[in-house]
Amino acid sequence: MNKDKWIKQQLALKGIYNYSQQDFDRLKSLFIDNITSLKMDKYTAFDRAFQAVFGRKGN
Protein backbone atom coordinates (compact mmCIF):
# COMPACT_ATOMS: atom_id res chain seq x y z
CA MET A 1 0.00 0.00 0.00
CA ASN A 2 1.41 3.38 -0.92
CA LYS A 3 1.88 6.15 1.66
CA ASP A 4 -1.01 8.32 0.44
CA LYS A 5 -3.50 5.47 0.60
CA TRP A 6 -2.26 4.36 4.03
CA ILE A 7 -2.47 7.91 5.42
CA LYS A 8 -5.99 8.37 4.02
CA GLN A 9 -7.00 5.06 5.59
CA GLN A 10 -5.64 6.18 8.97
CA LEU A 11 -7.51 9.49 8.68
CA ALA A 12 -10.73 7.59 7.97
CA LEU A 13 -10.13 5.40 11.03
CA LYS A 14 -9.97 8.60 13.09
CA GLY A 15 -13.20 9.85 11.50
CA ILE A 16 -11.50 12.55 9.45
CA TYR A 17 -12.95 12.74 5.94
CA ASN A 18 -12.88 16.46 5.17
CA TYR A 19 -9.41 17.96 5.02
CA SER A 20 -7.60 20.31 2.70
CA GLN A 21 -4.88 19.21 0.32
CA GLN A 22 -2.57 21.52 2.27
CA ASP A 23 -3.34 19.68 5.54
CA PHE A 24 -2.83 16.32 3.83
CA ASP A 25 0.51 17.41 2.33
CA ARG A 26 1.71 18.74 5.70
CA LEU A 27 0.61 15.54 7.46
CA LYS A 28 2.40 13.40 4.88
CA SER A 29 5.58 15.47 5.12
CA LEU A 30 5.66 15.29 8.92
CA PHE A 31 4.84 11.57 8.80
CA ILE A 32 7.78 10.88 6.48
CA ASP A 33 10.10 13.07 8.55
CA ASN A 34 9.10 11.24 11.73
CA ILE A 35 9.92 7.90 10.15
CA THR A 36 13.14 8.83 8.39
CA SER A 37 14.68 11.37 10.75
CA LEU A 38 13.30 10.31 14.13
CA LYS A 39 13.12 6.56 13.39
CA MET A 40 9.56 6.19 14.69
CA ASP A 41 7.35 3.27 13.72
CA LYS A 42 4.64 4.25 11.25
CA TYR A 43 1.81 4.34 13.79
CA THR A 44 3.66 6.61 16.22
CA ALA A 45 4.86 8.73 13.32
CA PHE A 46 1.31 9.13 12.06
CA ASP A 47 -0.11 9.97 15.50
CA ARG A 48 2.53 12.66 16.10
CA ALA A 49 2.00 14.16 12.64
CA PHE A 50 -1.78 14.03 13.09
CA GLN A 51 -1.55 15.89 16.39
CA ALA A 52 0.68 18.54 14.83
CA VAL A 53 -1.64 19.14 11.88
CA PHE A 54 -5.08 18.66 13.41
CA GLY A 55 -4.30 19.55 17.03
CA ARG A 56 -6.06 16.56 18.57
CA LYS A 57 -5.71 12.84 18.96
CA GLY A 58 -8.84 11.77 17.09
CA ASN A 59 -10.52 8.51 18.09
Mean pLDDT, to the nearest integer, reads 93
Low-confidence stretches: none
Number of helices: 3
How is the main sheet built? Answer: none
Distance between the termini: 23 Å
Structural class: mainly alpha
**What is the N-to-C order of secondary-structure elements (H for helix, E for strand)?**
HHH
Rg from alpha-carbon coordinates: 10 Å
The portion of residues forming beta strands comes to under 5%
Give the beta-strand count. Answer: 0
Overall 3D form: globular
Residue share in helices?
55-70%
Task: Provide structural commentary.
This protein has 59 residues and is mainly alpha-helical. It contains three helices and no strands. Helix 2 packs across helix 3. The radius of gyration is 10 Å and the shape is globular. The relative contact order is 0.19. The mean pLDDT is 93.
Key descriptive features of the protein:
globular; about 0% strand; mainly alpha; 3 helices; about 60 residues
How are the secondary structure elements laid out?
Elements: H1 3-13, H2 21-36, H3 42-54
Helix pairs in contact: 2-3
State the gist of this model:
The protein has 59 residues and is mostly helical. The protein has helices spanning 3-13, 21-36, 42-54. The relative contact order is 0.19.
